[in-house]
Amino acid sequence: MRRLLCTFLILGSCGTFTCSTSPAQNSTLGSTKASPGTAAADVVDFTIVDRIQFSVPGNWPVIANRSTNEKTLFAFQIPNPADKGTPDSSNLSITAADLKTAQDKDSFQNEPASPDPSAQARKLVEGWACGVFSAMQKSTHYVIWDCRRLVADCGVSVRIAWPQLSKNPPDYDNQMEMVLSKLLTSVGPFKGVPESGILRRPVN
User: Fold this and answer.
1) What is the pLDDT tens value at each position of the chain, 204 positions in all?
2) Half-sphere exposure of residue 109: CA atoms within 13 angstroms, side-chain side
3) Which CATH architecture has domain 3-189?
4) pTM exceeding the 0.70 threshold for the entire prediction
């Protein structure tokens, strides 16, 4: 399996990121289309200032990239042939918030898994608090999962949403839950550069 390692650069404690395939080939992801380096990788490993690491499939385009001194957010589109020609799409976002004090951590842990009052608590992956609810986007019904946990002094929140389309595979809901489960399982403290030898390096 080929892997690409992406590293957040410090803007406060959680920041922006760059991706490196080798010292001579560096690409920054931040547009609505995946870079050539991303498309060529089966898995993309992201790290947040050597504190948090998670992985996504290499064919997921980055559709949002926002960073402040307090929080970093990335959003990805999940390819689904059923949404071709429609305004709908399956997507996943991950947010890392820098929790500087014990009070910040307690506050994060005491908040519900989902901000939506109709969300129902669900267990999917050990250590993660999750809630699921449904919502309408214009005329399309969406299933939405929110999950959160503490990782390396950051509050990590994940949201996945997918439309209920007539052309979706019969087991699409189960597929999306498996996608979420795999992503949540990949989130954890920074584990170092993958054995593939792909190098991580800062950009001036």
Assistant:
1) 555 555 544 334 444 444 544 333 333 333 333 333 334 458 887 776 667 888 899 899 989 888 777 888 889 999 999 999 999 999 999 999 989 999 999 999 999 999 999 999 999 999 999 999 999 999 999 999 999 999 998 999 999 999 999 999 999 999 999 999 999 999 998 776 655 444 333 233
2) 12
3) Sandwich (2.60)
4) yes
Coil/strand/helix, residue 183? helix
| Domain residue spans of the chain | 3-189
Separation between Cα atoms, residue 162 and residue 91, nearest integer Å: 6
Q: What DSSP string describes 71-126?
A: EEEEEEEE--GGGTTSS--EEEEEEEEE--SHHHHHHHHHS-S-SSTT-EEE--ST
What is the C-alpha R_g of the chain?
17
